[in-house]
Design brief:
The protein folds into two domains: 91 residues, Ubiquitin-like (UB roll); 132 residues, Cytidine Deaminase, domain 2. 25% of the residues lie in helices and 30% in strands. The chain contains seven helices and 15 strands. Strands 10-9-11-12-13-14 form a six-stranded mixed β-sheet. It has a five-stranded mixed β-sheet with strand order 5-6-3-4-7. Strand 12, helix 7 and strand 13 form a beta-alpha-beta unit. Helix 1 packs across helix 5, helix 5 packs parallel to helix 6 and helix 6 packs parallel to helix 7. The protein starts with 12 loop residues before the first strand and ends in a 6-residue tail after the last strand.
């Protein structure tokens, strides 16, 4: 049966008991620590299962929209008519109703797979099925270095679940002024970004008027997801992979990694950054 908004999902975190063992003294101390929830969520289009993803059970409506866009199921948010979340014995089911034309197109290219936490390629059975975003039109927007510095510093303060558990990823969207607009958290880095993109779709955010930040390594799938949304700047707390950099170059997405409070490494798009006085 459908779930109400108030009781729809399991808790984002649960309390667990553990013991801290000191290597230096050998003392053992009992502690309680919150752990992030991880639930299987079945994605269903037109009554037909498409994927099972391991997701932190929050912002699932955002996840439905973002996942649908970055998986190439939809091209515009209006191609989703309704999203319904239901509790089942084995987990959650996310029923996504598409417009007739989009549903027909989806069934023409449908693939089903079981996903793992944060895995972006589980179940792909040939190289032609790799994510491949369309090349953007026009020049990438110019972003001030100080705005990126400001946003990176702010993201850590906007991760309540990670502050509790130290076990989840975040994806954030900042305006060109560096102010954080939205943050989504999840046990999976791809899920966090899908949730973020979904929330931006639902609020009609302009992809060229901001940039994305991810608190994880930057694999090529994250570049593809950002490109699918239409954004042109991606900042990662860790380094990108070689394939991620290759795709960023091909798509002309400004890609910065190893972003810290005092520096970042720009791997592509240095000409799109505006150097001004650093934030003190």
């Amino acid at each position: 049966m459908p779930l109400s908004r108030q009781d729809a999902f399991p808790l984002e975190a649960m309390e667990a008991e553990g013991f801290v063992v000191s290597f230096g003294t050998g003392t053992i101390t009992a502690v309680g620590r919150p752990l992030p929830s991880e639930e299987p969520v079945g994605i269903v289009y037109g009554g037909v299962p498409f994927a099972v993803m391991m997701v932190t059970p929050s912002c699932l409506n955002d996840f439905a929209y973002g996942f649908s866009l970055t998986e190439g199921i939809i091209e515009h948010r209006d191609e989703i008519r309704n999203v319904r979340i239901e509790q089942t014995e084995n987990g959650l089911q996310c029923f996504i109703d598409l417009t007739p034309d989009r549903l027909h197109a989806h069934f023409a290219r449908r693939r089903a797979f079981s996903g793992r936490t944060g895995c972006g390629l589980c179940g792909i059975d040939d190289l032609a099925s790799l994510p491949h975003a369309k090349s953007p039109v026009g020049e990438a927007p110019r972003v001030e270095v100080a705005a990126i510095q400001r946003a990176v510093a702010e993201v850590e303060k906007r991760q309540p679940l990670n502050a509790q558990t130290r076990a989840v990823h975040a994806a954030a969207w900042a305006g060109l002024d560096g102010k954080i607009v939205a943050v989504r958290e999840d046990v999976g880095r791809h899920n966090a970004l899908d949730k973020l993109i979904g929330s931006l779709l639902l609020t009609d955010a302009e992809p060229r008027q901001g940039f994305a930040i991810v608190t994880s390594r930057c694999s090529f799938e994250l570049v593809e997801k950002v490109a699918a949304f239409g954004a042109r700047t991606l900042v990662a707390i860790s380094a990108p992979t070689a394939r991620a950099l290759q795709r960023a170059r091909e798509l002309d997405i400004t890609l910065a990694g190893i972003a810290r409070s005092d520096s970042m490494t720009v791997f592509h798009g240095i000409g799109h950054l505006v150097q001004q006085d650093a934030v003190q």
